[in-house]
Specification:
With 259 residues, this protein is of the alpha/beta class. It is built from ten helices and eight strands. It has helices spanning 15-28, 40-43, 49-59, 75-88, 104-110, 122-128, 155-162, 176-183, 186-196, 205-230, and strands at 2-6, 33-38, 67-71, 92-97, 114-119, 141-145, 244-245, 248-249. The strands form two sheets. A six-stranded parallel β-sheet has the order 3-2-4-1-5-6, sandwiched between helices. Strand 7 and strand 8 form a beta hairpin. Helix 3 packs across helix 8 (176-183). The longest helix is centred in the last third of the chain and has 26 residues, at 205-230. The protein is globular, with a radius of gyration of 18 Å.
Length: 259
């Protein structure tokens, strides 16, 4: 089982959105996924957006064993939950953390094979990019640009403010994610909107195209994450030889199949 921690030192950077988007794309790639919800609402025993979204996905045909949400209130519950998930056959565990770090964040980081740090602008990038967590020397940490389309500030300025390694594929800034809590599965949202917009004289064709592009980009992001977990970077993304994380080099390019 691979474990990915979604981390950020401030709110509003897109942690929960990135968690759901990756979960949706990984399930579509036939991976069994568990979201470990360590957000403030989970600690308060409230129903979180992750739980509500997963329930909607289950009602739309995704088996509960393929997508589950586990609320964790402390580091011990997280550690135990990860062991149980591995024994159940979960392939990817996504840990969504809260904005203000606690001692439990160290458990989330130490449990991870990869730490992803989303940001939506230069101020976010600068705030979260300064060694957000002490993850040791063997855990790669990558930023994820979560605000590209329609941004007033060019993406390269935001990425420069982060100052660390960044995944080549950005999380698209799309209305697709606003539909997730209510409509559930991203692939179903795109398919249903395509059907509504069929025909040259039907409204909504441009929006359908936007949703389709966003869904493809989310799948590309998930593919890149899977390659990072295997120790490689996709050559087609134009990354220089070798996988470079914040703490050093993690593997070399290889001619292998897409995971």
């Amino acid at each position: 089982m691979h474990t990915i921690t979604i981390f950020g030192l401030k709110g509003g950077t897109g942690r929960s959105m990135l968690t759901k988007a990756l979960a949706a794309a990984l399930v579509a790639k036939a991976r069994r996924v568990a979201i470990f919800d360590a957000t403030r609402d989970a600690v308060r025993s409230l129903q979180t957006s992750h739980a509500a979204w997963a329930a909607r996905c289950h009602s739309e045909g995704i088996p509960e064993e393929d997508l589950e949400v586990i609320a964790v209130t402390d580091g011990r519950a997280l550690s135990d939950g990860l062991v149980r998930a591995r024994k159940r056959g979960v392939e990817i565990a996504l840990i969504d953390t809260q904005a203000q770090p606690t001692c439990d964040h160290a458990v989330a980081a130490d449990s991870a094979d990869l730490v992803l740090v989303p940001f939506t602008g230069p101020m976010d990038a600068a705030a979260v990019g300064a060694d957000p967590v002490d993850a040791g020397d063997q855990i790669p940490i990558f930023g994820v640009n979560a605000a590209v389309r329609g941004a007033v500030i060019p993406p390269w300025k935001t990425e420069k403010a982060y100052g660390g390694p960044i995944l080549r594929t950005a999380l698209p800034h799309s209305d697709l994610f606003a539909r997730m809590p209510i409509e559930g599965r991203l692939d179903r949202i795109v398919a249903s909107f395509d059907e509504e917009a069929e025909g040259e004289d039907r409204p909504g064709l441009a929006e359908a195209e936007d949703l389709r592009r966003a869904w493809v980009q989310v799948q590309d992001l998930a593919t890149e994450v899977l390659w990072v977990l295997k120790g490689y970077r996709l050559e087609q993304y134009g990354i220089d030889a070798g996988l470079y994380g914040r703490n050093g080099v993690f593997g070399d390019p290889a001619d292998c199949a897409v995971p």
